[in-house]
UniProtKB/TrEMBL annotation:
<protein>
    <submittedName>
        <fullName>Uncharacterized protein LOC110426729 isoform X1</fullName>
    </submittedName>
</protein>
<dbReference type="InterPro" id="IPR018971">
    <property type="entry name" value="DUF1997"/>
</dbReference>
<dbReference type="Pfam" id="PF09366">
    <property type="entry name" value="DUF1997"/>
</dbReference>
Length: 257
């Protein structure tokens, strides 16, 4: 008895079904659609041709995002304002990403970084990103979240990315990564503060096995992971920048002596 077996993109026993060929001629062949939606197509033109049975799994991309703000006391000194510090973009980059073995400068505004592995649920990816740093002042083309009376703002965003060392069935064409951030001195009020925002968005198509996890469970885990990631980035960037800014102030002070 001839049988045709059609399966999903990844092996999983509960996702296989069997269609008996003799049922095509008798009009008895039926497939009941269940979630996730299963579509089965059969094409045949003559007895000499082989039957073609195609199975498709319709999967909606999973999207996870996190956004945090920075509000840290900032102690400036005359002749070494934070505005002046932000203008030295290579110095800013080296303070945020001190591992020179994983980065290279592409031009005056962009650097390529081999990031540490990102762990997303059971997926692990190694992004390589092109990071752009741009200084803006006097309210010109500021991002919406930055007040227009801020004197200077450093804008950070990813212009290009690729994934290396893919595993667990992640298709690079089904993966999207967006990272945007800002840093600026906020002198409104009695004291100056380091203000900023960091936002990360990741979208990817789940492998069939992972798609079987309830959506509310996936969303809760994904949100928790993303929040931890951006909080870790915030702590590292904030501490590194403030430490280097203190060094910047000492260097300026020594030059005036």
């Amino acid at each position: 008895m001839t049988e045709v077996v059609a399966g999903f993109l990844a092996p999983c026993q509960q996702n296989y079904f069997v269609c008996r060929v003799e049922n095509f001629s008798k009009g008895k062949w039926q497939v009941k659609l269940k979630k996730p939606e299963l579509q089965c197509h059969a094409n045949f033109k003559s007895k000499s041709q082989k039957y073609l049975v195609r199975n498709e799994l319709t999967v909606k991309p999973a999207t996870y995002s996190a956004r945090i703000s920075t509000d840290i006391p900032l102690y400036e000194t005359p002749g070494a304002l934070f505005d002046q510090y932000l203008e030295d973009k290579p110095r800013i980059f080296n303070a945020m990403f001190p591992d020179k073995h994983r980065s290279q400068q592409l031009n005056q505004d962009e650097w390529r970084i081999k990031m540490l592995p990102l762990q997303l649920l059971i997926l692990t990816v190694w992004p390589v990103v092109d990071l752009r740093l741009r200084c803006k002042s006097r309210g010109r083309d500021y991002p919406p979240e930055v007040p227009r009376d801020i004197t200077k703002v450093l804008e950070l965003d990813i212009t290009r990315w690729e994934l290396q060392g893919l595993n667990n069935g992640v298709d690079q064409s089904h993966f999207a990564l967006i990272v945007k951030g800002t840093l600026y001195p906020d002198r409104r009020g009695n004291k100056c503060r380091l203000g900023g925002h960091l936002e990360m968005n990741i979208s990817f198509v789940l492998p069939p096995a992972l798609a079987l996890i309830p959506e509310n469970v996936r969303n809760s885990l994904g949100k928790g992971i993303m929040t931890k990631m951006v909080e870790s980035m915030k702590q590292k960037v904030g501490s590194s920048l403030l430490a280097d800014y203190s060094k910047f102030k000492r260097e300026r002070s020594d030059k005036r002596v």
